[in-house]
Amino acid sequence: MDGKSADDRNFAFGPFVLDRGSRILLREGREVRLAHRPFDILVHLIVNRDRVVPRSELLDRFWDGHDVYDDALRKSIGAVRKALGDTKRPSNYIETRYGDGYRFVSDLATARVPTALLANGRVRSGSFTPVRALILAASVVILAVLTLGLYVTAPSESSSSATAQATHRGTPRSIAVMPIKNLTGKAETEYFSDGVTDSIITELARAGDLKVISRGSTFSFKGREIDPRELGRELGVDVILEGTLQSKGENVNIRVRLINASDGSIVWTSNDFERRFTAASDLQDTIACSVAAELRLQICGDAGHNTQNGIAYQEYLKGRYEWNKRTPAGIKKSIEHFNRAIEFDPMFSRAYSGLSESYSMGLWYVPFPSEYALPKATEAARRALAIDPDSAEAMTALANAAVLDWRWDEAREMIEKAVTRDANYARAFHVYAFYLTAFNRYDEAIRSIRRAHELDPMNSVIRADTAHILLHGHREDASRIDAAIAECDSLITTDPSYAETYDYRATAYSLKNDSDRFAADLIEAKRIRGEKGLNRFTSAYSSKGKPGLLRLLLADELQLAKNGDPRPMRIAAIYAALGEKASAIDWLTRAVNDHDAEIIGLAQNPWFDILRDDPSFVELLHRAGLAR
Q: How many CB atoms within 10 Å of residue 372?
């Protein structure tokens, strides 16, 4: 270093030379003015160029730990970029990375500013000799070529957008919309940030040539700071959309940005989207249209499925927020909110779709009686579709209600329209998979559930239902039992807390006559659900084997039925597993009479294999419209 320490050395990058000791930044021999703090931040980024420097580190180091707004840091970074002329994308010198960190990305060389150029720490005007000027100019050219060589195909400033970046690195064909961060400090506005995120996902999914990851997967990362490169790998996307929500008096403010999932660089940042809190019904459309414009997508046009009524929009977002909890209380609250949204805007299609899905979901989670919930689910879905005939969301809601109500022809018509209308709507493919399973179309069902998984890769329900469908096809292909076990094993490594996974794996082990593993998984599912007294199940299996465990399960289910919570399909399945065919048929008859939601899987449910040739079983299939 010619007697200089590493801390005192000069740096050359592009057309610049930075002298740390004299606090001078030169561009082709002429001084570039840079204030004290931005200069120090630039030096810090250069010295730490091997890593992303977190915002928190810069705030602590250069503001002495004082409470400052992020704007102070952004303005300093902006001053550095202005001094370097680093206003184009991709950035030549300083990139903003996910999590609001920064990294110096230019190639670098050490250099010494000739002492003849300095006087009292400043550059002397006209102090270059022709020879020195030529040498420095040549050095600058060489460094510039080395530094900027990677960007020779970069777009011009006029196309500094995600699409311009895509031109350089490949057009984005997939996106994950991460949960908008609620920075208001008010927990009661969480429904708003979540709801806007959900709506943006729905809007972007209308672009048929863009793969959009569904809500279930992106929200599994909520509240976690994860490198976008890891997100890109896990979700299989090219770009990531993230944003923040802040409040300003009676207004809400949202800012979003697109991040390249391959390297974590920011490729586009929006202006602020600001609305009065009570008049923010167009926010998701506006944001989605802005993002679509950057990605060169056409999704913007008539938004008849939305509302211009601010109160209706608030109620809709609250409804979706509660619905996504998938709890008995959440389902009931969602119905209240969707109904209020409809009161304020009777032409709000999405509110009707949400109401329909709440009644359908309530069959499983509350549970609602079929005769109460299904007519309401059907009526709401048909109203949604009448308002917006092109809505895949409304088509899927109606198809789901039709499946549960055994209106199989209508279900097929609606769900096939939905998957054709919106190739990005994971729920449509999920519902379609169950329709296909009901009629033994297993290869198609598996393709459909795999497509749902592709669109929503972190959704545990979809992944577990993949195993469920594989098991229903085991009589056609016995290898599907092992495939179902593998599916469950894979899901348990990423989400060991989803109880149904263990139920399905227990079924697979039962089919393989592995009683020990069957019992272990069955008991584990109960433990995850928080059931008490698990020792009695362990003792029953230890002393009396699988029959003893099944008898204890049966006693519990019969007690629930006596107390007014009958689950006839489950009771029938236990009787069938015990070989008591007559009792199994009796409870299946009750399930059909009660229109039990679980009947839709009756035709090839593996627990009823011993009943396949029983005339009474065949008659029940006919009554449910499943004997085809």
A: 13
